[in-house]
Inverse folding.
């Protein structure tokens, strides 16, 4: 929260495109998890390794900006982006249920809990919850041995699904016809906080059931003050950091850079699409330099690096957009300024002092929100739409180029190839080589190139793999893809 | 089940309109509950009282048929029908949550269940579940004193809401675009059994949590063979039945008759509407005579009387309807026969021997289905649509006569009057006078007559209170209500 607030304020003040909202995103979370597992398996201090990744990051961004490297993005087509987006959604959904299963294992459904808890004294039958702490080496260890409680597992699933369904219902409610528009949109926009609040109320009123709560530090301090301070020693905190690893950190640095580059580039394209009629242009190279440099410096303090957050940035831009009145409203202008971004960043910082409220939130209600985010983010992805077309009769296919200008079987084949790639990425993610995920993702680029002209004609590929934002780095930016696609 | 099967077979063989499906319906359930409470409070044998109600029923139906009494139905307009329909839905929904609260009281959410169950020996702190049996007087008494179990209450709510949401989702799935039409409709039509089956599977796999199961007799026998046999003594089973009550039973008989008359009449109208192009006409008086006489005789055996079941009959008629091919399918004909009705009735009887499967059904899954039925049956009621219009901005109001030809405030006033009537009926239902419910319902008929010409003009009333089936007993049956309604 400290990192998001401070970096957000700096970015809003000096960035070339202050409409962007920066934050910690799903892909970065996957990377941090993978890098953490890797460090743990190699007995290396993760928090120190991050500094070296950060230093390499700064070096990489300077080189890329020096050679005006953003042209590289044109190789990353929708084909690759969509596989990645669905992977992120799947990870969100998977993690939710994974955590729920852990709760069921810690608090099983039995008739007599005393029998279970008596065996706490017996070292061969200990039951432990996921309450864990960092030990002196900075590694997570199981510390507290907790009792198994009745009703905990089922209340957790109720809070999770309750939170999910309420947030989901309010999202649909927003697009419905009930209540005047302003109140309806307000309820819809605050659907997630409303859902969390209701779950807090339920959890608070059920006093005799144990549920795990959100752990928040009191005031500004690091997550675990016993183990580290605000400044991380790049030579190692508790043991010397291996020299070879300082160089080897350039590999994960390339991976993080790919993630930040990809997400920030796509976000900039979507936010500054021509329909929005923005007056101020974007400065992609400057913003990338700023973002990655701030991230590199952040790693010295042991706080996360950030990227431009797609959903938050688009929501920000939409909120600032003024529509013309009339039956067919068009975008009139966008109120371009730096104030709103600064206010958002300050409010993120202020929430640090809301610990008395935040610590009342049951963790499982947040799992419900993760599930909500995973499922709702699927709906905007064309590959997901095409996956649903696999089980949709042809007469209901949409009037989109990918469905009308390409033979149905060819479209299904394209979807199937993406599904195979997704499956492979999932296997990599679940394996010991999860750190290699960005590399495997990049392999989909030559695959797409290989398929163009062999399995799919270039025109078919243009329809199936058309850019969403319609702002491409192609030679003919003015040509509408739809007009070029042949009828089947 | 014996009653439904035998009466169903007889009705299908000799009824004038064998497309009707007869069964035990919501309004009859409300009556039986009210009559049971009344008998209990007066210390009268309920099962014997039903015989006298049955005898009076036969007398009433003979009189009504002799004077061709079905003209009476024209007084019962949509205004009254809708209030009654919503009341039934509300009762369904209320009962579901009421039963859930009972489970939470019997199995509270506490940390230590042994503490609770130790007090079973202490008469001042007994915890009892709703496992109850009929005593020698035929009254329900709390019999078994059961332990409070962990996880039971929360698993019950999970099974109930799980069953509700799956059935609800599959209902929507049926109207969606996924999977080929035949498979989609099949899944949609069997949504309720699929939902129940899934809940059985979940409940079966959670071995160490107690849930109450459906109680089904093994083979053909009465519900409680200890207390009564197949033949009820009209003079009293365990004590003499009071003479004055034999005469007084004509009052509840009138109430039951109103219910059966109302529901059967409406069902016949809907099933035999002209669009369906049925060749064989209906014989309302004959069917009513048959139905009520069978019901009266059934009461001697202590089994329920039945009425024509609206939803089941319409589903039956629709299943037999042959549509013409083409872009605008129209009804071609209805396969009118007696076989399908007989098969349905025989299968109801056959399910008596499915006790090994039925006894696996957790009761709370059925509560979920009651909730589903309560909520889904709301959607077909115009009064419910108008209640939603109370919170819908005017621009989204539908292009229906009641919304376009009447001033919005007048429409809302009409809805408000109905809501007040509904509230009054609810108060009566919850009070000690719940048996008087049909009488209070009938009072809405003079209220509607009073409002016509005073608060609402006759034309406004025609738009607001238009008959759904468009087969009315009015003088000008050919006139479309819509054409007559004035623009506001």
């Amino acid at each position: 929260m400290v990192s998001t607030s401070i970096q957000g304020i700096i970015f809003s003040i000096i960035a070339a495109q202050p409409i962007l909202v920066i934050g910690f995103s799903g892909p970065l979370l996957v990377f941090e998890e993978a890098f953490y597992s890797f460090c743990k398996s190699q007995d290396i201090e993760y928090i120190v390794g991050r500094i070296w990744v950060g230093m390499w990051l700064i070096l990489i961004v300077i080189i890329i900006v020096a050679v005006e490297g953003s042209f590289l993005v044109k190789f990353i087509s929708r084909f690759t982006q969509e596989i990645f987006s669905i992977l992120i959604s799947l990870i969100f959904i998977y993690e939710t249920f994974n955590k729920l299963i852990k709760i069921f294992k810690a608090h099983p459904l039995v008739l007599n809990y005393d029998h279970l808890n008596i065996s706490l004294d017996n070292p061969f039958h200990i039951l432990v919850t996921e309450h864990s702490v960092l030990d002196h080496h900075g590694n997570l260890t199981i510390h507290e041995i907790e009792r198994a409680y009745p009703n905990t597992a089922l209340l957790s699933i109720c809070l999770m699904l309750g939170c999910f369904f309420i947030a989901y219902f309010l999202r649909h409610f927003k697009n419905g016809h009930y209540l005047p528009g302003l109140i309806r949109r307000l309820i819809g926009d605050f659907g997630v906080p409303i859902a969390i609040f209701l779950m807090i109320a339920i959890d608070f009123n059920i006093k005799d059931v144990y549920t795990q709560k959100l752990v928040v530090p009191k005031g500004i301090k690091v997550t675990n003050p016993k183990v580290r301070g605000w400044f991380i020693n790049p030579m190692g905190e508790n043991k010397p950091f291996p020299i070879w690893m300082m160089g080897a950190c350039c590999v994960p640095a390339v991976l993080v850079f790919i993630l930040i580059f990809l997400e920030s580039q796509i976000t900039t394209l979507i936010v500054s699409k021509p329909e929005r009629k923005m007056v101020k242009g974007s400065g992609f190279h400057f913003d990338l330099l700023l973002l990655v440099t701030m991230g590199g410096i952040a790693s010295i303090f042991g706080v996360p690096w950030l990227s431009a957050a797609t959903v938050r940035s688009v929501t920000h831009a939409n909120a600032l957009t003024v529509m013309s009145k009339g039956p067919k409203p068009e975008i009139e202008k966008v109120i371009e300024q730096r104030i709103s971004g600064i206010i958002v960043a300050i409010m993120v910082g202020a929430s640090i002092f809301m610990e008395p409220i935040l610590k009342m939130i049951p963790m499982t209600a947040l799992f419900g929100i993760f599930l909500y985010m995973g499922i709702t983010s699927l709906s905007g992805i064309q590959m997901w739409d095409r996956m649903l077309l696999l089980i949709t009769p042809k007469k209901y296919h949409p009037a989109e180029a990918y469905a009308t200008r390409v033979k149905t079987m060819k479209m299904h084949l394209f979807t199937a190839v993406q599904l195979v790639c997704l499956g492979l990425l999932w296997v990599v993610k679940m394996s010991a080589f999860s750190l290699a995920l960005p590399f495997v993702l990049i392999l989909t680029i030559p695959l797409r190139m290989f398929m163009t002209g062999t399995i799919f004609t270039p025109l078919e590929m243009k329809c199936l793999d058309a850019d969403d934002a319609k702002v491409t780095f192609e030679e003919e930016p003015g040509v509408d893809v739809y007009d070029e696609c042949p009828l089947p």
